[in-house]
Specification:
Elements lengths: L3 E5 L2 H10 L1 E8 L2 E8 L2 E7 L4 H15 L3 E10 L9 E9 L21 E3 L2 H8 L10 E8 L7 H11 L3 E3 L2 H11 L3 E9 L5 H26 L1
Parallel strand pairs: 1-4, 1-5, 5-10, 6-8, 8-9
Antiparallel strand pairs: 2-3, 3-4, 5-9, 6-7, 6-10
Helix pairs in contact: 1-6, 2-5
The structure holds adenine.
């Protein structure tokens, strides 16, 4: 079959999914609650990983080992990095990279995982294809494909954003995607990260994140719904 793991980090990122699910069975592992059930004709396991790369990694490995999910979709919000993107726009990951790994004193590039075969993890072409046919009702919302950057930092500084854009050419920045991507790569599980912008990772990020997380999380949810209905 095609059991699908759906992950979010925060309550706002998973609650709409949980409301829409049927036949829900609940299980807790490593402090994370997993909701097994049905959603738009698919068998899914929904979970709230918690924030950051460690939480995301643990959660991803449990989805793979204990639930044998065949695909993983991460849904949630991010800060904008590409200057043409606005709050509410949606990014479909083409690839993911950790922006905060840095062994440059011993000769590795910033963002490079020492001794690993790759540090940039490609999302699954089929999942990207399911996602990119989405057309929001509001035609002012941009839906783009791009690189998702992740680190254990909430970015709220325009100079840091400019640096991330220049160094890694990211579309958005968040705190889980590249960890999910790396664990999926290690286990050969197809994944995609869907993120709608709650803020632009600048001086207004704190205020905007508070105001726009709910609406951005809903936009990501709508896109993932579209994917499930296409499947
Ligand atoms: N998630 C949403 N906005 C973010 C930001 N500015 N930095 C990191 N993660 C985020």
């Amino acid at each position: 079959s095609k059991l699908i793991g759906i992950m979010g980090a925060m309550t706002e990122e998973i609650e709409l999914f949980l409301e829409a699910m049927t036949d829900v069975k609940k299980n807790v592992r490593a402090g994370i609650t997993f909701y097994q059930g049905r959603l738009y004709g698919s068998d899914v396991v929904l979970c709230q990983s918690g924030v950051g790369k460690v939480n995301a990694s643990v959660c991803t490995q449990i989805l793979i080992d204990d639930y044998q999910v065949k695909y993983i979709i991460f849904t949630g919000v991010a800060g904008g990095v590409a200057p043409e993107l606005n709050i509410g726009d949606i990014v479909i990951s083409t690839e993911c990279q950790q922006h905060d790994i840095d062994a440059s004193p011993v000769g590795f590039k910033k963002g490079e995982i020492p001794f690993a075969e790759t540090s940039v993890f490609a999302a699954d072409p089929y999942l990207i294809k399911l996602a990119e046919s989405y057309r929001p009702e509001d035609e002012t919302i941009q839906v783009v494909k791009g690189k998702v950057l992740s680190g254990d930092q909430f970015i709220a500084d325009p100079e840091q954003v400019a640096e991330l854009y220049k160094t890694f050419n990211g579309s958005c920045v968040e705190m889980e995607g590249a960890a999910v991507a790396q664990v999926c790569h290690l286990n050969q599980i197809p994944f995609v990260i869907i993120r709608s912008l709650s803020d632009k990772a600048d001086r207004e990020a704190k205020v905007n994140f508070t105001e726009f997380t709910k609406v951005a999380a809903k936009r990501s949810y709508e896109l993932v719904n579209h994917m499930l209905k296409q499947w």
